[in-house]
Task: structure prediction
Amino acid sequence: MCLQERRQRFTKTVQGVNRLVDRFGLYVLIALAGALVVIRLREGRSYSEVSDLASIVIPLITLGALLTWHKELLAEQASMRRLQTRPQVLIYFARKEMQNFSKDRLMLVIEHFGGGPALDVQFTFSPPLVNHEGKTFADEPPFATGIALMRPGFRREIDFDDYYQFQNRAGLTRIVGSLGVSVDKVRLDYDATVTLRDPIGDDQQYETRYKLDLRDLMAYTMDFRAEAEPQQKV
Result:
């Protein structure tokens, strides 16, 4: 066997040992050392030869294990730093209570929950956001223009509608619809998509999709369903 082949075999052996050590740690080291001693003794080697061999192999295995653990530790630390600095921008509905209770407002809130800045933040909604007066918000900033730079902790409130006007119309369309009248129900949920770039990371565009739902803010606008017919007892 030539020297090059021996080196290749040794490299593969070390890699295999590193994988085992990575999974089972100190137990693998002890088992390998014990097996090595037993094999050499069965081959008729003297205790001094076995001891010399063990004094070489065990430090090499230990070094490989330490390098593997160190590499994993660095990867985990990099992943944690990435999570801490990754921008996370969401938009959601919120009810804003006013001093005059009958004048509560329904707000759209844009908020940055992440730890790093976000660039070129864009918003899309399906179907388009429309209030009870028919106003379409996709045609107005920041939805039409996006937000060029958003710092961590950024928060903006946008007046979407009169809370009770919107709720009453949503409830009314559902009541009328339950009576068999053809009517377009006021939407209470939208598919939201937020896209942005992460300048601290790889500066690639990231996209977050989720359901923007109003139902938890408007208790009585639930879909009216026909009562189930009572089951006859046999």
